[in-house]
Amino acid sequence: MKHHLDWSSYETAGQGDAYAGIPATGGDFARAVAVCIGDRLCQRTPKGVMCPSFRVSGEIAHSPGARVLALKAALNGELGAAPFADARLAEAMELCVGCKGCKRECANQVDMAAIKIEWQAQRNAALGVSRRDQLFAGLPRLLHRRPWLGALIGWRNRSPLLAQLGERWLGVAASRQLPQPAARPYLPPAIAPVLGERSVFLLVDTFAGLFQPHIAMAAQAVLHAAGYQVHVLRPLADDAEPARPLCCGRTYLSLGQVDAAREEARRLHAALAPALASGAPIVGLEPSCILSLRDDHLKLGLGEDARQVARQVFLFEEFIAREHDRKRLRWQLKPWTQPPMLVHGHCHQKAVGAMKSLRKVLRLIPGCQFEFIDASCCGMAGSFGLDAEHADISRAMAELDLLPALRAAPDAPVLANGFSCRHQIEEGCGRAPRHIAQWLAEALASPEPLPESAG
């Protein structure tokens, strides 16, 4: 079996364990699957992160443990000569939203999100990539190469007829609004960085750069006000597409298009060379992107560069919390004057314990009161909630805990750092969540204008 991801870190997993039941084929990927010990912790229904598809369906078949059994059957030859093309395996994997809840809460940290990427890549190799997955995965490139797509998305969102045609031809749910690209994407100045002791590299992801540039501008303003020299990452001058924004490849990765994700990762690593050489912090905004750099990218076979990036990259709130602990922040924040805030954490933030940093940063705003919503995945999960066949269950996931909590506090400001989370909340209850960078920018006592040389 040819692997699409590097599973060598599982080389010794399960050896000598009576429970492991390592499949006959699949090599280290089979060992990654077999770390499940069958304790059925994933088949529980209390609040929390663990498996939203099981929680909302109530069907054991849609739990991580059942997916492990299906994958073992496939790797043991029980599903025929082409197991990754088999409809039975597809049915078992279909409702996994890649939330990484099982990696945190499973006793043996089954990484079903990464396993799903490998499964999807294997299925793509066997059956090809659907037009819908090509569209959603390639959207960051397409929006740059064909800017008129932004207007087409807006037209589709306003036209029930076009939405119905999109569902018929592509399988995109007509009942859903598509995220609207910004009229003017975030474009940092093309200035070579002059590095100093307080230099920080800001990684503006696809979602902030192309869809919500105000978040990138807020982050830049906050870091500048805190006393840092902010260098916004740009492609190298000799890049094949020097004007195309950098991308970590998350959209490709989540849909099993691993080669394209690896290509984007290499492009990003090349642009990160000055940061890696200097050891300067790399700060990012979108949890799914930044935590991919620390986790999933290590399975792309990119060598020491990927490991160095993983050591140097921080979520925005992680960096702020760290610098506060080091007493390096040079700002003043105004007292909080709004009602208590409701905070929804991105699944990947929860899975790696990054919510602690968010809690610490919110406490820096004088008088800020807040409550973390105890909820599983919001259900949007990238493009999952936009699929025609998944739109209803996506909404049901949001209705488990998240949307009822928001409706119970209609005047509460809302914080959600995930792009998909904000989309689900806006569509589900008409609220307008904001990123932590925006709330901090609003709290600055005397924000200074950004220097023209910041780049």
Automatic annotation (TrEMBL):
This is Uncharacterized protein.
